[in-house]
Amino acid sequence: MIRRPFLIIATLIVFLAGCSNEPDKKNSAIQNPPAKNQSEEPNQNASTGQDPSDAVQSEEPDKNAPDIQDVSDTNPSKPQISLTDEQILMKPPGRYAGSNYDEQKVQTDLDQLSSDLTADEYMDELLLLLAEDYRKYVSTFINFESEVTVNNPRPNEKITLPTNKKLHISILLDASGSMKAEINGKSKMDSAKEAIQSFGDKLPKNAEVSLRVYGHKGSGSQKDKKVSCTSTEEIFHGQGAQTSQMKTALQDIKPAGWTPIASALESVKQDMNPDTTDSVVYVVSDGIETCGGNPVQIAKELHQSQVKTIVNIIGFDVDNEGQKLLRQVAASGGGEFTAIDNDEALKNYLNKAYDKLRGEWTLWKEKGAGEANIKKEQKQGTINRTQETMQSLANKEKDNLQAALAYLESKKEKDFPRSELLQLINERQRFAWGYARDTGKRLYSEVSKSGKKVYDDITDEGNEKIDDLKDKQTN
Length: 475
Description:
The protein is α/β, with parallel strands linked by helices. Helix content is 58%, strand content 11%.
């Protein structure tokens, strides 16, 4: 009985002792956190003992660090974008560029710069103040068209008219009965046909050509006068390249009736295309108007019309009285009268007329070659002026930057990055100056090659074709 109460008392003491130790364990847990918690908490609460506002300020940079870091730091795998030479030089000019340069104001702004800038940062600040304006000249180079073009068509097989010149050549052939007469055993009609065909073969390839006969119907009798005087017919109309067809058209034409020159001249207007710019008429006749018309008045109207028209009269074996009247027709038509007394003279006259045409296109060739040279030299002049102006600006910019450097050096501490900044200034000058030189040289060479090619194409091909035409004339 004694042992049992003792056991109960001992148990109670142990229980009470355990209860008295519990608060100490809890306090120990609060005062001494696990090692893991101890190592993390200082980083999270590094501002312990500081003003709350200070703690917030110290945390903000960490929270916003990605927003202020360079892109290359946050994404090192992303390629950096490099500017082209043109993009660099197309940047806006500095505040004191060109005529805005004011040394005192520049120095005032330089005084505001931080004293701990790197050479690159100093250079950026200097360019914001002193970079010259290259934009106009770089744009000239970027948009420069180095190809030399001349609006001067080249001859091709036969002489070719300029595309802006629409020439109409009218040949009016007298087919009246008097053309049956012979000269040196050959009828005037046959001689005229041969001369006209030879002339047609040498006409400009793209000229519009029409061949009209008159007086080829009826007869020389009074009863057929009305029929004959109203007989004027265009038997060929085409391009100079097609005049070989005139021979076929002329084969069936026989001299027949009266001489309606006025009526034939009046028909020239309807033979021309609406876009004709120039018109030349050659009237081949052995006599005067016999149908009562007024060829002098009609020739005058043609010459004064909207389309400039020259009326030439070729008097083929015409008597003195006839020549007098036909000269009046030619004068009123702004042309000339030429008296021809045999078939060789007729051919020679038409060849001379052809020589005149060939001479005109020779002038066109020379004009085109001259224009090629002029345009080439104009383009080269633009290149030279642009290059020289850019290089002058680069030199001026360098002088101003070096003046700014000297001022900074006089104001800053010994650790001022003078050498590095001077190197950057020199590199900037060499870059702008060299861009102007290299780009100008390249464009100048392109213009020279293009201009020479155009000049050579026109002169060489033109000379070749003109020589061919000379050969045709003698054959």
